Each structure stands twice: as C-alpha cells, then as structure tokens.
C-alpha cells in the first residue's frame, strides 16, 4: 500500500533548481511504488466547499511573480482522472462532506512544482483537491480519512503545504531567538506526529510552542494540508520523517510519510 505524504512545496524554484531538497524529491519519486493515480491537496487552492478536479487534462498555473523566465517556461501537462474524481465525490458525499466537481482549473504551483520533481514525465493521472483553512483540524483530517481506502488501490495521496510558513519571519531570518523558536515548534510537531498524538495535534494552536509564530492566522492554509495527509494515513503503522530542512533559515522543507 502506498503511503500518504505531506510534502513541503517551498519556493516555486524547487521545480527546476539544483538543490539538496530538489534532489531529495527526485529520489523520493524513484523510491515509491509507481502509483496508478495521484490525489494532491494544495495550499494554493482554497475554497469553502471541497473542490475535486475532474478535468481531462491540466493547464499549468503560474500563480507567482518575480522569478526567472525559465520557470515560466516549465509546463506540467498531466492528465486528470474524471472517473476517480467522481468516486472521490461520492465518497465525500457519503461522509456528508459538502463537495463539488471542478471542470476547468489547472494545476497551481503547490501541485505542479512538486510533481515536476517526483514524476517529471507527467504520465500519472492527477486529481487536484482544494483545502479549507476555515475548517478545524479534525474536519480536515476527516476529509483525508474518507479517501484513505484509495491508497490500497494504488492512489498516492499528497498534502502540499509548509509547516512553518510566515513571510514576516524573513526580516528576522538571522535572529537566533526566532530560529530557536520555530525549530522548537517543528520539533514539537515531529514528536507528536511520531507519537500519533491526535489530541495534541488537533489543538496545536494552544499546545505547540510558538504556534502563532510558525503558523500565523493568515497562513493556516499552508499547515492545513498536513491534516488531510494525516487523515489519509488514517491509523498508520508508522510515521516517518523523510526529510527536514530549512529554506531561508525560517521556513521548513519537511516531508512526512504516513504508512
């Protein structure tokens, strides 16, 4: 059975730049059993009602600015999987989750930059999913949990976000106290994931050290994909930290697997 994964999407440049994290993502795709399809929750597709992409083929959305021209020439022409999208729609409806099918949206950079490293041939069907940061972590988890049976059918479920994502920290990137604080948050998160302490994780805003610094109120959409991926893992036999790194010293490149 394939794991569910939480993968940090970091800077859009991960799609093309030579870096340790980019190399890790290359190897991650090679190390996994080849999926029949990919379901990916992206922090850059927000909606109040759960959206499920049912397109036949995807355009590439460049939802960022100020990067080298080379990045805007990258395309990720993945095919969709309308049949799988319809099945997901029915699973969520049966779980009484408000859900709609989307028939036109392309892949945003929370999805295609990662997939360009994991599966550069773009030859695996993709179903993109929105996230809703207004839901509670328990509700986000339950949506992922509803899709957990798909993992035994060769579907790779990914939550794409960032666990420490606060652009205001860039101004203090060389501040030792700030670096210590956010590392304490990530260490707490990792320990609670490995202990599968759902009660603490669902209440991370009050339980975790420096939670508001790491996950500001206007940046929760990047933390939410973790709970969707956790839910898809359901009751994992193991939780693995596949990668930990820092971007600009104050944002995480963390990858967790739920097997």
Keywords:
259 residues, alpha/beta, Protocatechuate 4,5-dioxygenase, Chain B, two-stranded parallel ribbon, 10 helices, globular
Helix content class: 25-40%
Global Rg: 17 Å
Q: Biggest sheet: strands, sense, closure?
A: 6 strands, mixed
CATH fold call: Protocatechuate 4,5-dioxygenase, Chain B
Explain what this protein looks like in three dimensions:
- It contains ten helices and ten strands.
- It is of the alpha/beta class and 259 residues long.
- The protein has a single domain, classed as LigB-like (Protocatechuate 4,5-dioxygenase, Chain B).
- Helices cover 36% and strands 19% of the residues.
- It is globular, with a radius of gyration of 17 Å.
- The longest helix has 20 residues.
- The strands form three sheets. The chain has a six-stranded mixed beta sheet, with helices on both faces. A two-stranded parallel sheet has the order 3-4.
List strands and helices in order, with pairings.
Elements: E1 4-8, H1 20-31, E2 37-46, E3 50-53, H2 69-72, H3 82-94, E4 99-102, H4 109-118, E5 126-131, H5 137-147, E6 155-161, H6 176-195, H7 198-202, H8 204-207, H9 211-214, H10 224-233, E7 239-243, E8 246-247, E9 251-252, E10 255-258
Parallel strand pairs: 1-6, 2-5, 2-6, 3-4
Antiparallel strand pairs: 1-10, 7-10, 8-9
In short:
By secondary structure, the chain is an alpha/beta fold. It has helices at residues 20-31, 69-72, 82-94, 109-118, 137-147, 176-195, 198-202, 204-207, 211-214, 224-233; strands at residues 4-8, 37-46, 50-53, 99-102, 126-131, 155-161, 239-243, 246-247, 251-252, 255-258.
């Amino acid at each position: 059975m394939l794991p569910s994964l939480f993968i940090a999407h970091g800077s859009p440049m991960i799609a093309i730049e030579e870096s340790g994290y980019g190399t890790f993502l290359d190897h991650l795709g090679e190390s996994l059993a080849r999926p029949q399809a990919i379901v990916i929750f992206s922090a850059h597709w927000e909606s109040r009602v759960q959206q499920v992409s049912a397109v036949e083929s995807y355009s590439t959305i460049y939802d960022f600015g100020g990067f080298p021209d080379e990045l805007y020439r990258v395309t990720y022409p993945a095919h969709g999987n309308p049949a799988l999208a319809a099945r997901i729609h029915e699973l969520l409806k049966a779980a009484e989750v408000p859900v709609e099918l989307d028939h036109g949206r392309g892949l945003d950079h929370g999805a295609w930059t990662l997939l360009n490293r994991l599966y550069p041939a773009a030859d695996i069907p993709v179903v993109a999913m929105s996230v809703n940061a207004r839901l509670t972590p328990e509700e986000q988890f339950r949506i992922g949990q509803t899709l957990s049976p798909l993992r035994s059918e060769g579907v790779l479920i990914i939550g794409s976000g960032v666990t420490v994502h606060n652009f205001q920290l860039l101004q203090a990137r060389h501040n030792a106290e700030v670096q210590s604080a956010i590392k304490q948050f990530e260490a707490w998160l990792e320990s609670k994931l490995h202990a599968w302490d759902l009660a603490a994780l669902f209440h991370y805003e009050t339980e975790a050290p420096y939670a508001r610094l790491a996950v500001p109120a206007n940046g929760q959409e990047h933390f939410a994909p973790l709970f969707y991926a956790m839910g898809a893992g359901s009751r994992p036999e193991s939780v693995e930290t596949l990668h930990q790194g820092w971007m600009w010293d104050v944002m995480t490149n963390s990858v967790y697997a739920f097997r």
